[in-house]
Amino acid sequence: MSREFTPAEAMEFFQKMWNPLGMPIPGMPAAAGAAPNAAPGMPPFMPFPPNAMNPFATFDPAEVEKKIGEFKAIETWLHMQIGMLQMTIKTLEMQKASLEALRAQSQSASATAHRTSAKRKK
């Protein structure tokens, strides 16, 4: 039978997996008065105290609502950029078709001119 992990054991497992050498991670908070690679009461391979990376440690519904608003604004901006990109692609396709039509027309006109000049010479 398997037993369930405690939250501390789960955090320890993930930290071992994520940072097996226990190197300090730049920008991660260290526990006050602790050695650079260890927090009080923790093995030395834990580079940061528990819950330092937990995004729900300071769960505040107002902050979540603010993040939702920010992400919706970004989503709207991305949709607008996709529309601009699609319009640019369609414009370039139309320009390509126009250039191909002009090239075909000029080639047929030059071929006709060569035929008429060859008939006149005979």
How would you explain this protein's 3D organization?
It is a single chain. The chain is mainly α. The protein has two domains: 1-58, no CATH class; 60-122. 60% of the residues lie in helices and 0% in strands.
Q: What's the end-to-end separation, in Å? A: 103 Å
Reading the helices and strands in chain order gives HH
- SSE-based structural type: mainly alpha
Low-confidence stretches: 30-38
What is the number of helical segments per DSSP (H or I, 4+ residues)? 2
| Rg over alpha carbons | 34 Å
Basic shape: elongated
How many E strands? 0
Helix content range = 55-70%
Keywords summarizing the entry:
elongated; 60% helix; mainly alpha; 122 residues; 2 helices; single chain; 0% strand
Secondary structure layout plus pairing:
Elements: H1 7-18, H2 61-121
Give a concise summary.
Helices cover 60% and strands 0% of the residues.
